[in-house]
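Replying to the earlier thread about multi-chain prediction with a worked example.

Input:
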Amino acid sequence: MEHRLDEIDRRIIHALMDDARNVSAPTIAEDVSVSPGTIRNRIAQLEDRGIITGYHASIDFERAGDRLTNLFMCNAPVSERETVARRAQVIPGVTNVRELMTGRRNLHVLAVGEDTDDLRRIARSLSDLGIEIEDEVLVQNETTHSYAPFGPNDGERAETVTDFISLSGDAEVAEVTVERGAPIAGISLERAVREGVLDDDSLVIAIERDDSVLTPHGSTEIQPDDIVTVFSRGGVDEETIETFRGE
Amino acid sequence: MEHRLDEIDRRIIHALMDDARNVSAPTIAEDVSVSPGTIRNRIAQLEDRGIITGYHASIDFERAGDRLTNLFMCNAPVSERETVARRAQVIPGVTNVRELMTGRRNLHVLAVGEDTDDLRRIARSLSDLGIEIEDEVLVQNETTHSYAPFGPNDGERAETVTDFISLSGDAEVAEVTVERGAPIAGISLERAVREGVLDDDSLVIAIERDDSVLTPHGSTEIQPDDIVTVFSRGGVDEETIETFRGE
DNA sequence: GATGAAATTCTTATCGC
DNA sequence: GCGATAAGAATTTCATC
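Result:
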C-alpha cells in the first residue's frame, strides 16, 4: 500500500505545486508522455493517499484592502499540541498552522487581521485555547514554490533569474544568468534591440563575466554564463526572461 | 487604481483559498449571483493587481516518500533581506519563504529534504548567501485555510468540527457541534441508526451538553448545540459530518 | 494505462449599460 | 469601464477495454 512515487507522480506534484489552477491534465500528460486520463487517475490517487492535501490560492492581504498578516509563535504542551492546533485552525482569520517537532515555540500560527485590534482578538482566541504566545511578528512578504527535485531533470538547469527587485512604479531590475542557446547569446546588444530579440523597454545595465563586471555598450556581445543585470521600466516579464533562456 | 474589494472579490478569494483547483467559475458565479464571465474577469483582475499571487498544491512530503520538512529560522540584515530572500527561494528544496518585519529571526525558510544530509546541503546554501541560521526545527504538520471573514456570511455559522484525531488504521474520532436543523437533531440514537441517518460504522461515544458530559444510550436524543464525540472505524467522512450540520 | 462519447467549463468576441 | 451573452475550443467525467 505504501507505494513509492514514480516519475509521473513527481512531475504531477511539481506541476501542481507550481500552479494548481491553470495547469491542465493534458498539459502535464504531454510533458510525461502518457494519456491525460492517466494523469487524472494519478492525481486522484495522490489525493486519496493524502499526499496532495489541498490546493490553495496565495493572497497578498496587504494589497487586498490593507490588511495585516501576523505570525504568532506559540508554545503548546506536546501532549495537546495536535488538538490545540486543530482548534486554532478554525479561528476566523487564521490561514496557516505549522506544528513543529521540538522547541518551546512549537506552534506557528499565521493570521490575517483588519487592524491591530483584530489581531488582538485572534491572540485572545489563541490564549483561550491554552496556547501561550511567546512571540509575534508582522509578516512582510511570503512566497511559495514548487519542490525543485520533482521538476523536469533536463540537465542541471539552474534557475535563470538569480535576483529580482521591484522599483517605484512598475519598473524592475532583474539579474539573470544567460543560458547556452539563449536567443540573445552571441549577438551584440545593438543588434538584439534592432532585431527585436531584446524588448525596447529593457536595458542591460551590467554584465558580470569571469568575476569582473563589464559596462555594456551597443557593440557588447552577451555570452552564455554571463550574469546580466536588466532594467525594465514596464516590469521584467516572462517574455523578457525567455530572451536569456536556452530553448 | 487602488480599488477596494467588493463582495464578489472577497467571495472569489475565499473560494480559491479553500480549493483553487476544483472550484469552477460557474460554481462561484452561482453563489454570488453574477455571470461566470464576470467571475473570470474578476479573477484575472485580482491576478493582475497582484492580490492573487499564485495557486499552490499542498503536499505531505512525509507521505510522499519519507521526506523531511524543515523550518530554518534565520537572520538576514534588513538592508539585504529582500535580496537574500529571493535568492533563498531558488535553492532546490526550498518551498516557502517568509520575510518578517522585525526581530532577529526575520527570515523563515521552509525546505524539504530527502534526509538530514540533504537538509545540511540546504543549510549550507543558505549560509553561502550570507544568511545566518539561528534555529531550525523539523515540521510535523502544516495546514492552510481560507480567510473566514471573506466567506459567506450566513449568520454566525461556526465550524461544525471542533476537533479531529486520527487513530491507528483508518479509524478516526471527531468532535462536532450539532447545528439547528441537523438531520440527527431531536431523534434518538437508536432511531438514527435504524433510519440510516447515522452511519453504521459511526458511534457516538460522548455528548457534552450544558458543561456536563452525558454517556449516550440508544434512547438518548441528540439536541442542537450538543458537542458530540463520534468514533468511526472507517474514518469520519464528509457525509457523516453532514448528519450533524444544519441544511 | 488507454480510449471515446457526453457534459461541463474555458476562451474569445461582441453587445449593452 | 464593467457585466452579460453566445459560439467554438478545450477540458473533465465516466464507462469501457
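The first strand of chain A starts at residue 52 and ends at 59.

Feel free to reuse this layout for your own posts.
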